Structure formats: structure tokens, C-alpha cells
Amino acid sequence: MTWWWEGNRWEKIAKGIAIAMLYAVLSWSARQISLDQFYLPAGIRVAALLLLPRRLWVYLLIGEYTYFAYMRIPMIEKYGLTWVVLGSITLMPSVAMIVHWHRRRMRTGGEAWALSACALSAITVTALNVSLANVLWPVPTPDAPLTQILQFVVGDYVGMLTVVPLVLLWKRRSESNIEVSRYTRSSTTTIAAMLLLGVGSLAIPKTQDLLISLLQISMALPAIALTCMHGWRGAAIAVPILNLLMGVTSPPWTFDQSVFVTQQILAVAGTAMLCMGSSITYYYHQHRAGSRRERLAIAHAKTAHVSAEMELRRRVISMKKVGDGIDHSLSEIAHWLNEKGHHGLADDLMRIAVANSRAFREETSMVYPTALEHVGLYLTLQISGIANEWSRTERVLPPRLSGDPCKLTVGLQLAAYRLLTEAVSLLLSGEKGKIIVKARCGRISGYQGILVLASAADVTQQLSQVTTVRLMARLTGRTLAYRGSISCRNGKVRIVLMERATTRTSIEHDLNTDPFAHDLDDTRLM
Length: 526
Fold this sequence. Notes:
Blueprint: H1 9-32, H2 40-51, H3 57-72, H4 76-79, H5 81-89, H6 91-109, H7 112-136, H8 146-171, H9 180-203, H10 209-218, H11 220-249, H12 257-339, H13 343-367, H14 372-383, H15 385-393, E1 400-402, H16 410-430, E2 435-444, E3 447-456, H17 465-481, E4 485-489, E5 492-500, H18 507-512
């Protein structure tokens, strides 16, 4: 209402008076098409209080009093001035207090609080009307049986269920993140089905009460379907349409007991659908928030792993520069010794320098396998320091590798390398016998990845409980960062890593790419 409430003081007052007159006209118009068991002005009253800010409620009071003045001043002679005044001025303030108390809870407690506001308002208004009539009417009041009181309560409540959900849906339109096309198709189909059933109930002869009631109750089935598909937003469309069709298909200006029973059933069904829809939407958002937090955690873990690898890469490059400097210095010293005639000493120096340089480079490749960026995971496992490390143990059989790892991103290959080397290390330290290493790369359903197996060569050998616990504790974090999984069964460590199918990238690209670009996609339904 910000756009409406702009301008100077007199403009605001004029606009407020316009609101009051609009409310009075709407209430009068709704009264012309209402029944005691389907009373739309009660819904307009609660809907207006929910729609407008509290600073404009005074104009709703003016509109309410204008409406009652037009409707009840002709009744003064029959029912008395006291009843006309008190019966007109007490309803809106009472409902306003109920709505004010519920609005604060609706912000955090969900749409179900609107049903509480409607129910309390219907009961309060009926109690005030019946009590004031019994006390203030100068003529004897007819006894109000329980059926008639229930008729008033249900009529007010159904009128509120017809208007209030639509107003709440309008108020929260900016918060909507639904898939509009799907929501529109579902709503249109549901309304068409309900209209068809409603027209069918009108076309049946009035003597077929049971069949008419059956068709009217059947109108709830499409409404339930829309609620299940779209939660509260589906119920906010279905329930008002259901109540409106029920009011239109009721016998005009008469009270029909069978229709009233059907209307009570639909009132309960509408309440249940709104509650169910609110719960569906609430738990859907809870699930989506949990899934989003999980994806955020995975994305952060992935970023942390790539950042750690970048730091190791930087250190290895720095170490290689230091090693190159040492090799160059030793080469110059050996050259100087040759010039001085110390050929044997120079040869020994070069032999030691080459051996130490090779060992130094093997150790640095264990810290970070720079060869992986150029030749891929499989060749790195065969030519880098880890290959010599496994060969010296004489327990690791030559790896069995299939597929093309170069199609995977460097980040995923690094993760597979770390997981495989650590798994083999834990198996070497905790188990006996020889170890088989297998790996296979592939692509499926828009994803690409790698399957890694490390197991005992003896198929009858089972992993110990201690080794299994250590494997799961040390390897699970990195597998989750790449949509993967790890299992230890039948003496095998099975690791799967997955990522969206893409082209191979450098480690710098993996670090600089937004990790949330693909991991935070949401399916918008409610």
C-alpha cells in the first residue's frame, strides 16, 4: 500500500475515505449473493484486515459502519436503536483484535494461523450477534437452536475460507518461487474439473439429492490433487473455488439440510487441505533448506580441497626451483673438479648428485604430482614417485587401469589420486598380503567420473574392523566433495567420484570457478 499512501495529509484522508467506501460497497455486494450458511461479508472483513496495514484499519471501521448504517437503520423501529448501534460497532473491533494477535504469528508460524483467525472470528461474531439479539431486541427473540447457531458459524467460516486464502496468496506473491507454467497448468486443469462437476450438479434434477451431494463432494478431489502438487499455494486456489462453487450450486435463498451437511463436510475438507498444504510447503522448504546447506557444505569442502592442492603445488614448484639450483651448483663444482684434474672425485660427486636429485624429485611428486596436469592420472600412477614407492614394498601389483582420465577435471583426478594413495597406504599398514589396484573412468547421464578399487589379492581375505574404520574416517570427506561414495565390503575399498560432464581444466581454473554454479540448482515447486 506504499504507492496508495503517498501525498499530503488531505490526499491521504481522501484515499482512506475511498478505501472505506470500497469496503462498504464490497460488503454490500457480497451480502446480496450470500446465504446464512455461505456468508461472504465475514470473509471480506477478515481479508481486509489481513491485507491492509494497521494504520488504515480506522478507514475499515468507517466502511463497516457505513455498510451497517445502510443495512440496519431501517431496522431501528423494529429492533431498537441500542441493538442497531451496539450490534454494528462491536463486530469489527472484535475481529480486528483477533487478526492483530494472529498476524504476528503468521509471519513465522505459517499460513495455518490464518485458519485459527478465521475460526475464532466466526465463533466470536456469531456469539456477539446471538447474545446482543437476545439481550437488546425489544421484541421476543425466537429460540436459536444449535443447528441455527452452527449454520451462522459455518456460514461465516466458509465465507472466510473463500476470500482469505486468495488475499494471503496475493500478499505473498513476491515470495513465490514456484514454477509458474506448471502451477498455471495445474490450477487451470483443477478449476476446469471442479467447474465441470459443479455444472453437472446443477443439471441434475433437484429430486436426486444424493447424486447432487455426491457430485458436490467430488469437487474436493481435484482440490486435494492440486494441494498435494503445490502445497499451500495449491490449496489457496482450490479451497476458495471449491467453496464458491458450493455456494453457487446451493438452492438460492433457502436453507437445505442436505446441502448444509455437504457444506459442513466441505468446510472440514477445506480446512484439512489448507492445513495439509501448509505442512507440505513447510516441510518442503525445510527439506530444500537442508539440501541447500548440504550442497553448500560440499561446495565449501571442494573449494577447501582445491585450495589445499594449490598451496601444495606452489610449494612443490618452489622446492623444484631450489632443487634445480642445487643441481646446477653441483654440476658447476663437478665441472671445476674435472678442469683441475680430479676426475674420479667429479664422477663420484655427479653420481651422488643424480641419485639425490632423483630421490628429491620422487619425494616432491609425492607431495604434489605435477605430472598429473600434463599426462593424466594413469601415467602419473605409473611413472611418479608413488609408483616407485609401491614397487619397493613388493606388495602392490601393477595397477589395472581403463578409460581416459584426461577427460576429467584436474581437481577430480587429484582427489582420485589422493584417495587411492591413502587407501593403499592404509591397506599396506593394516593388512597382510598383496594388494590389487583398479580404476575405470566413464560417463553416464550427463556426469563423468571414476571408479577406484583397492583390495587384497586374496579374495577370501576380509578387511579388519580397525582398517575399515580408518578408511571411512580418512577418506569420506574428500569423496563427498565430489558427489562420491566409499564402501568397504568383501575385502575391497570401493570409491566412486562424480562431476558434471565438462572439459578438462587446469587446477587454477578449478579453484577460480564458482563452486556453487552447478551445486546449488533448485527445483522450484512451491
